[in-house]
Design brief:
The chain has five helices and five strands; from the N terminus they run βαβαβαβαβα. By secondary structure, it is α/β, with parallel strands linked by helices. A five-stranded mixed beta sheet has the order 3-2-4-1-5, sandwiched between helices. α2 packs antiparallel against α5. It is globular, with a radius of gyration of 15 Å.
Length: 156
């Protein structure tokens, strides 16, 4: 089994959001359970699973709202229907460049060259229970690799 590639996600808020960091978002979610929404694409997508991992590792009660595609997630974030969006840089590039949305963290282990000022979510480790988000994301990547290996054996 080998990696074909890695892709990381951004955790973004509306530009006018009071949340400046992942720790701010997690703190607010703990202080007011079941009041914040996270937007992702399709149930079961990598974005959706990343949001589920955030929810479970941070121990927060938030609602995950799945949309059919990234444009709908962006619209929901701009309308404040969701307070956090999880998606790829490519999907979020236009509203990021227009400064309509703001990244507060990345799922990557280190900051990217494209957005060097965006910290990894793991840096908010004091906000996560049991294990860091990075460990959970590594686990998810391992499950995807294992599934690919099983599919290859069945095909061969």
């Amino acid at each position: 089994v080998s990696s074909m590639g890695y892709f990381d996600f951004l955790f973004c808020v509306n530009a006018s959001s009071p949340f400046q960091t992942m720790a701010d978002f997690v703190k607010a979610a703990r202080e007011k359970p079941a009041t914040l929404n996270i937007g992702t694409i399709n149930i079961g997508s990598s974005q959706n699973l990343t949001a589920e991992l955030l929810k479970s590792t941070a121990g927060i009660d938030v609602t995950l709202v799945p949309y059919r595609g990234s444009p709908e997630v962006i619209i929901a974030l701009l309308r404040d229907d969701v307070q956090l969006a999880v998606d790829s840089y490519a999907a979020l590039k236009s509203p990021l460049l227009e400064k309509k949305i703001r990244p507060i963290a990345t799922s990557a282990a280190t900051p990217s060259k494209v957005l060097p000022d965006v910290p990894p979510a793991k840096e908010a480790k004091a906000t996560f229970k049991d294990r860091q988000l990075e460990s959970a994301l590594d686990y998810l990547r391992g499950q995807i690799k294992t599934a690919a290996k099983v599919q290859t054996k069945k095909a061969g």
